[in-house]
Automatic annotation (TrEMBL):
Organism: Taxus chinensis (Chinese yew)
Name listed for the protein in its UniProt record: Eukaryotic translation initiation factor 5A
CDD domains with a match to the protein in the record: S1_eIF5A
Family: Belongs to the eIF-5A family.
Any GO MF annotation of the entry: RNA binding
């Protein structure tokens, strides 16, 4: 580790860092953390006492924000962990294609056509049923570490 100071931009735009460091002892429940190279939401944090071999240790249990899998990690509390840049953006749904992709309207008026329908059955049926009924739907997209996925849907009324 070097002693030089680092500056990280906290914007999830192209060229910005996908993660930033945070001391393990300061990470709390409901925060985001990279565990086994996956962005996770921390659901449990426990800290062990300093033992005869030095550092107190933090035990993190997290749920992968994209797959829902449970992951665990143990890190000395004085060491840095990677925290993912997680952003949420709302887009209006334009179309649902036969091959499982959605077409979304961005703030700039362009379309975004590279997102798949979610695998979560309840979210999937809400989107498909709402679209079939002609409702105006707003989809919330969560982005972290180069991945993105539909995580929520809001109904803003009928066309």
């Amino acid at each position: 580790m070097s002693d030089e100071e680092h500056h990280f931009d906290h914007k999830a735009e192209s060229g910005a860092s996908k993660t930033f460091p945070q001391q393990a002892g300061t990470v709390r429940k409901n925060a985001y953390l990279v565990i086994k190279n996956r962005p996770c939401k921390v659901v449990e944090v426990s800290t062990s006492k300093t033992g005869k071999h030095g550092h107190a240790k933090c035990h993190f249990v997290g749920i992968d924000i994209f797959t829902g899998k449970k992951l665990e990690d143990i890190v000395p509390s004085s060491h840095n962990c990677d925290v993912p840049e997680v952003t949420r953006t709302d887009f209006q749904l334009i179309d649902v294609s036969e091959d499982g992709f959605v077409s979304l309207l961005t703030d700039s008026g362009d379309t975004k056509d590279d997102l798949r329908l979610p695998t979560d059955e309840q979210l999937l049926s809400t989107i498909k049923d709402g679209f079939a009924e002609g409702k105006d739907l707003i989809l919330t997209i969560m982005r972290a570490m180069g991945e993105e996925q539909i995580c929520a849907v809001k109904d803003i009324g009928k066309n």
